[in-house]
Design a protein that fits this description.
142 residues; alpha+beta; Nuclear Transport Factor 2, Chain: A; 3 helices; globular
């Protein structure tokens, strides 16, 4: 039997299920990452929040302002932005290699106001951990 041909055929047959399992595991990991981010945002600390954001992170908030990593972390740790509650309602994660696209709806109450929002987040996997590189938030029309 031609061993290399057998291995190649076996890989073709088993490849998609193995990739699906990898994506499923990555999806669970990213869901936990988002949950951990929300929890860290409720009780912000500079060291903890810094782990979630890549240095090149950029956010567009629901008011249309564009913020970088240091601005987001400063708003949370200074108390300028203080969440009273932050509830993830639906989270959809798509994995594209080392990139995760996360879409969620959330109900937020903060000192600045309250409402339901859609959030689009892009995370990359580097050095065995996920980090956000971009987010955009939009208020859900009631």
């Amino acid at each position: 039997m031609n061993y290399p041909l057998f291995v190649a055929l076996l890989a073709i047959q088993l490849g998609p299920p193995l990739l699906a399992q990898t994506d499923a595991a990555a999806q669970l990991e990213v869901r936990q990452f988002v949950t951990d981010l929300v929890n860290a945002s409720l009780k912000p600390s500079l060291n903890e929040l810094g782990k979630f954001y890549a240095d090149e992170f950029v956010a567009t908030n629901a008011q249309g302002a564009v913020l970088n990593k240091s601005a987001v972390i400063a708003a949370l740790t200074s108390g300028r932005l203080k969440f009273k509650s932050y509830e993830l309602e639906q989270v959809d994660v798509q994995i594209h290699g080392h990139v995760a696209v996360i879409r969620d709806t959330e109900k937020i109450e903060s000192d600045a106001g309250a409402g339901r929002f859609r959030h689009l987040r892009v995370a990359v996997r580097r050095n065995d951990r996920w980090q956000l590189v971009a987010t955009q938030m939009t208020r859900v029309a009631e």
